[in-house]
Each structure stands twice: as structure tokens, then as C-alpha cells.
Amino acid sequence: MADVTTHAADFVLEIQGAGKRFGVRRALDGLDLSLRPGEVFALLGPNGAGKTTTVNLILGFLKADAGTVRVCGIDAGADPVGARRHVAYIPEQVALYPGLSGVENLRYFTTLAGLHLGKATARTLLAEAGLAETAHARPAGSYSKGMRQKVGIAVALARRARLLLLDEPTSGLDPSAAADFSTTVRAAATRGTAILMATHDLYRVREMASRVGVLSRGRIVEEIDPRTLDHVGLERLYIERLAGSAA
């Protein structure tokens, strides 16, 4: 029993046999996925593959019909509030108060989480998240998508979130901003944060992810080490696996 407990404690996220239906539609079909500290897992799949359902199960907004979803050993279905204490979620479009600066937004959102940051600490966290110092005091209404995401990551750093969920993080970013965001994600992973990205972006996952899972019809049909393939090879494998799962 001690060995099992130790093994389970190794995982920040552990999904085993998760199933979820909406009426007659099966959104997840025995999904297995695990993440250790410092890993970046890209969940790659088309619309309808089950990416959003997976994120909602982790956040405890949905409960699995079968299987288990655990965050830091906490069952997200049985104790969603407890599980969410370890999770930071950054949606495709991060909503900030446009009239507040980056520092003010960060301090406001961390106050909601029960934390009280001084201005100097807030600036340090924004810098660690990759936001340029010249933007710290600017109104967030002037921020690009990439800059808003960095404030979101700073919130995650302030909360010391063990798991960071990213929803289509590079969608709408120009190549320079996407490359910059890749650097930010890798830096967060280096600090020990486990990161799960739900994405369509075949190309950026090679720069960010330590593992890639191809999700189709609610289950992972292939898991890939992105370092073993170039962009063309990754695209070919992705298309082949989706075609094979649809057959």
C-alpha cells in the first residue's frame, strides 16, 4: 500500500479511465492521462475531440460518469474546491480589468485568492512571467493577448499553482508573440509547475511540450515525444491517427 501511495504522490494530475456522456454523445471514452511536476503535456485534437470536457473535469465543473480525475491526489469529482486550489486556468482569452494596470490586476486577482501582494512582489512576478517592465504600470486595456496571458501566468505563480491549464494558448498570436509565450511556458515548467495545454497548434507544441497526446473521440490514440519528429512528421502522424480512429 505504501508503494501505491508514493507512486500516486508523484503525479500532479492523474486521469484514469475517465468517461463522460452528454445524452447519446460520448465526449470522453476511457481517457488516461498523467502529469508529473515540470512536465508540459499538449493535448492535441480537433474540435469535438474532448479537450474542453477534459479541462472541465479537472476543474470540477463536470463530474466523470466513469473513472477518476485526481489533482495532487485529490478527487476532482468528490472535492472540486480542494482540487482547484492547486490549479490555475488560463482560457483562450484572458479577461483583465482594462482600466487597471498589470500590477493592479495581479494584486486584485490574488487578493480574491486570499493572498496580499505588495507592489514590488507583483512586479517581480510579472517579470518572471515574461511581461516587460514597461508594461507593468500600463492599463491592461492596451495589452495584447500574449501580454494578458502573462498576467494570468503571474497569478498562477503567485498562487503557487501545481497545475497550469492552458486553453488554445497560441491561437491568434503572431509568430514573435507565440515564440515568446513558448519561452514563458518552459520557464514555468522549469520551476516545477505541471502544464496541460489543449491546443490545435501542431507547430508550437514541438517547442513547448515534453509529451504530446493525440485526442480523438474522447481518448488518446497516440502519445508522442515531440523531439523525435520534425514539424512535417508530427503533422503526418497526427493526420494518420485521426483518420485511423475515425475508421
Automatic annotation (TrEMBL):
Gene3D superfamilies: P-loop containing nucleotide triphosphate hydrolases (3.40.50.300). SUPFAM superfamilies: P-loop containing nucleoside triphosphate hydrolases. It comes from the Bacteria. Keywords: ATP-binding, Nucleotide-binding, Transport. SMART domains: AAA. The keyword Cell cycle does not apply. One of its GO terms (molecular function) is ATP binding. Residues 13-242 form the ABC transporter domain. Belongs to the ABC transporter superfamily. This is ABC-2 type transport system ATP-binding protein. It comes from Methylobacterium goesingense.
